[in-house]
Design a protein that fits this description.
The structure is a homodimer of 245-residue chains. By secondary structure, chain A is of the alpha+beta class. Chain A folds into two domains: 3-152, Jelly Rolls, CATH 2.60.120; 160-242, Orthogonal Bundle (Arc Repressor Mutant, subunit A), CATH 1.10.10.10. Chain A contains eight helices and ten strands. In chain A, the strands form three sheets. Chain A has a four-stranded antiparallel β-sheet with strand order 1-7-2-5. Chain A binds a DNA duplex (30 and 30 nucleotides) through helix 7.
Chain lengths: 245, 245
Amino acid sequence: MNTQNLRKDVHTDGTPVVCVSCEARHRGVCGALTPEQLTTLSKTSYKHKLGEGHELVGEAEKVESYSNILSGVVKLTKTLADGRQQIVGLQFAPDFLGRPFKADSEITAQAATNVSLCSFPKSVIDRMIRESPGLEHKLLEQTLKELDEARDWMVTLGRKTAAEKVASYILMIARHIDPEAGPEGASATFDLPMTRADIADFLGLTIETVSRQITKLRTDGVIVLENNRHVFVPNVERLELRAGS
Amino acid sequence: MNTQNLRKDVHTDGTPVVCVSCEARHRGVCGALTPEQLTTLSKTSYKHKLGEGHELVGEAEKVESYSNILSGVVKLTKTLADGRQQIVGLQFAPDFLGRPFKADSEITAQAATNVSLCSFPKSVIDRMIRESPGLEHKLLEQTLKELDEARDWMVTLGRKTAAEKVASYILMIARHIDPEAGPEGASATFDLPMTRADIADFLGLTIETVSRQITKLRTDGVIVLENNRHVFVPNVERLELRAGS
DNA sequence: ACCCGACGTTGACGTGGATCAAGCAACGTG
DNA sequence: CACGTTGCTTGATCCACGTCAACGTCGGGT
């Protein structure tokens, strides 16, 4: 492990901090740590990959550790007693994963795609939180962002039609994965990171309805599909219109 | 203003801290402040009341100030361009109101009932946050709680039937307003703090559907209504069954 | 007392999306 | 190659909920 390089990355300009074990910037974590803390963290963190569908919680994986998502998409789901399921959140590439100050979240985290993570023990981070207030500030910011996203989605779940829901979903994915697609009449290309079943669970619909609405968007020329996963949006503004603002 | 009393409240056992201007405990704020900060805050905070339906945001009220809710219920709503509305959160008596680090929340806060608040300027609190890390910790805890509630409600919005939604709503209100109603077969009595229109906006339904489902709960003996607002739940467990877990 | 408006209930009817069911394409496996 | 499996689409039917409309009830103002 090259501590020299680590130190240099921290000291030269302060901002771009890299975790030595996974060689990635940790949004919300490393950026708020002192060089000493970062070194400590690096000694206990480890990089690993998960296949699609792999569960991250309930098997003592998340409960005892926090993770940064290096690539892929993680879905947070809640399930009713009779099996009805709802996805309550999606975490993308640089997000932080893990619930501070609470072991039981009643939420299941599952890999929606292949995922690679950089994990470290809960105890180490919890101690660092107590030591450096900047870290807590980062956590608060991410939590506020998640709260905003959750509330945005509540409007979609409660008040939009199936057609608007599906358009909103595609638009959200486009903005996350292909953020270069500017707001002004630009086009976008990306892969849907989830199955139709996942999309349905996210939108509070059935797979049949999702399929029909996607077909409609396709026949109307709003999107172009390839292999059921690869999406091309020739005109993002047209998609925005379908999403019901 | 009696600073002697204030100091005494802070010093004797540490925990029960009282704001001198509104004479109430402020969950999430005063409890994390030093005596000096509390004194400073008291000089700028002011207590006031708002009638039902009064807006707290968009008119420079919330943007430039934070508030503690002393009594009443505040609803947070989002509105689509065509007027469809969704309530994305409810804040009850000891909650903190106001979004740190962001002036534009795209959310409207309205008094759902008569509300009394204790407000103070954004700038004062923002400075105190920088000074005392305990305050930020409190904010993080409240934000996490709100996130949990939002995600619980997403399941209700996306996957529950109208009957289950209404039962879940009544149950949630019961637990907030009459928390003495123990989980084991106990009864509960309380007033619904919102109109049928608000309930509909909260549940993603129409007022007619809400009315029909309430009527059904009444004719089935799960609840007893009086004046359309006062509710008696003879057996909370029966209501829980209707809420679909 | 009267009216009025806000709020709530109830009924009749239409429809969006769920449900049930069939079929298709891509894939890996014996 | 036939075979099953998984993911997706499409069609036919049904029903939960929205929509439209009428009516009841309460409280406040003149």
